[in-house]
Amino acid sequence: MTLEIVPLQPLERGYLRVLRIRAAIGWLVLWGVLTGVDGVLHARLGLPFGWVSGPVPALAVGSVVLLVPRRWRRWGYAFTDRELHVAQGWLVRTHTVVPVSRVQHIDVSQGPLERSAGVATLSLHTAGTEGSLVRLPGIRRERAEDIRDAIRSRIGDTPW
């Protein structure tokens, strides 16, 4: 048996913007919470304001500018007629191969951020428990629909 190397395609550049906005929102929420903690510590213990929340903006900028693009670059996918490959991970690399014959349900979804960036998420539900949901975010909606339609036509061809 020979192992066939499948070249992976990167996610759409618009998804990088989505990831950056999500990370920025998360950092803003954390900053707000820590600013409240700073206020309590200042009032009760007399600690200087910003003792806890001060480093958050620098960490946020570092995360949004440096870490998010690294995470985005580590995603890749490929669709052949028989299977979908999804690779992800920066520290721990995961390469998932979903045979089309195992797919039971397919979703294409878009939130408001994804719609504004022109990307969608393709979700495949397979038989089994662990790993039965495989998500492929950050691809063009048209591409996600093409993959969905191709898988749906293949599922219809398989005898039950």
Automatic annotation (TrEMBL):
The keyword Transmembrane applies. Residues 72-151 form the YdbS-like PH domain. The chain crosses the membrane at residues 21-43, 49-68. The keyword Transmembrane helix applies. It comes from the Bacteria. Keywords: Membrane, Transmembrane, Transmembrane helix. This is PH domain-containing protein. It comes from Brevundimonas staleyi.
